[in-house]
Amino acid sequence: MKEYLELFTKELEEYVRQLNKHLLNLELDRKEKRLIIEVFRIFHTIKGMSQTMGFDSLVGVSHSIEDLLTDVKTKGEISSNLVDFLFTVTDFLALSVNALKNRESLPQSAEILDALDKIKGGKDLRSIKARGPLVEISDIRVKMEKIDVLFNLANELMIVRSRFAKMSKEMDDTRLRVLSETASRLISSLQDEVVRLRMLPLSTVFDFFPRWFRDEAKRQKKDVGLEIIGGEIEVDRSIIEVLKEPLLHLLRNALDHGVEVYSPERKEKGEILLKAVREKDRIRISVSDNGKGIDLEEVRRQAINRKIITEKEAQCYTDDDFFRLLTHPDFSTKKGVSTISGRGIGLNVVNSTVARLGGRLLVSSKKAGGSCFTLELPISLAVVRAMIFNLNGQRFALPLTYVRETFFMSDEFLKTVYHRELYPLRGEILPLVRLSNRLNCVEKEGRKSVIVVEYDGKRRGFITDEILDEVDIVVKKLHPLIAVPMYSGCSIYADGLPVLIIDPRGLND
To answer: What is the per-residue pLDDT across 161-208, written as a single tens digit (0 to 9) for each?
Structure first.
């Protein structure tokens, strides 16, 4: 019986998702007969499933909805009040899903059934509030705990593969080398497949927002639409799990700060766009609106009043500097506090979360021209392609996403201007960074290799002693007590010794 209950719960969960989607579309076009028939079919299916399992409360609700939708299906049009009520019924089903997962009693259906009787009697019932929690990401379809165990084992095999390859090369044994190459190929294939198992579409988290957004916009009496693009893009589950809250903060800000309350004077309907775009092994997720934009003069004034910066410092600030102030924990331009934003902590939470994931938050806006907040994140946090370099016997790793090229440096072309070392490279002046100074390593004499990196719109040349290798490395998190901005994690090299992974953004100029 347990396995049938799990199957029933998963199917009911999927029907809740479909109902939310169909009802949102019916709000836009209440004469879409195909959707009305589909909603009717879903409730009919839920009734049959519930009868088999003996869940009388679900049977009663589904059967009453069937009766209610029979005339609607014939007419080919549904009222807005009935759509509102069906959202409430869908929430009741969502509560039932969570109750079944937690092995709890199903929620009481008396209020829903009473409302249905009143509607059938001709009463105009606006809605009753029975909003239930949506499904948690970690409970979707596959038991993630088992995949995590498999994923960790595959990552350990990646480390063993590197050590095995190094050993076979050093021993110069043909049979061992052939065996190493075969094992390496198989381990790589296994790791690729396990990574695919962990990949989930962004729609896993994006699908939560249309219903939430619809309810909040109605509550605030704002005529605003939400468009979502890029939900089919897949990213690692570890990214998906923490995306919901940052994106929710950004959508709240767009709805509360960016889009004005509806008035006849407004010529343009409020629009908010949630868009995801993949760029190589990174992803950019943006929340943009066509609202009033950010008043940088107000930002400057508030920052000075709250003693975040001084007036003298403000005179040297660029637009980007003022935008970065929005992520300060004590900053807010909102006058007063609403139920959804205005406490000055939202963007700080977003920025901190994104930084922990190895990403960054970008802000752009024009007064009266809308705003755009972009999260730039890695597709996966587990395995990255990296360049291994040496500084006087100490090895470090640099993710290849930052690397543009490498070259040997000639001291005769080296220039120093205002204590900054510069190097001419194909008609451009490249600022140099001596990593030995930044990483507290003793500089070794001899020819230097330069790694040209690009990050945060900057282009720099990292001076190293020697470039050793390009390999796939398994990223391990550093303990919070020893974590510093210049390191994004650590890994195990082919000889079994650890290497620190450099984050260029943590190396202040």
So the answer is: 877 888 888 888 888 888 888 888 888 888 777 777 778 889 888 988
Neighbouring C-beta atoms of residue 223, cutoff 10 Å: 15
pLDDT value of residue 500: 92
Q: What per-residue string of b and e applies to 238-264 under the rule 16 or more CB within 10 Å gives b?
A: ebbbbbbebbbbbbbbbbbbbbeeeee
* Domain range 227-378, CATH class: alpha beta
Q: Which of 95, 96, 92, 88 is nearest to 127 (CA)?
A: 88
Architecture of the 2-135 domain: Up-down Bundle (1.20)
Q: Is 441 helix (H, G, I), strand (E, B) or coil?
A: coil
CATH architecture of 383-506: Beta Barrel (2.40)
pTM: 0.61
| pLDDT tens digits, one per residue of 434-462 | 999 888 888 888 889 999 998 767 899 99
**φ, ψ for residue 428, nearest 5 deg:** -115, 155
Domain range annotation of the chain? 2-135, 144-200, 227-378, 383-506
- Exposed/middle/buried for residue 84 (C-beta within 10 Å: 0-12, 13-18, 19+): middle
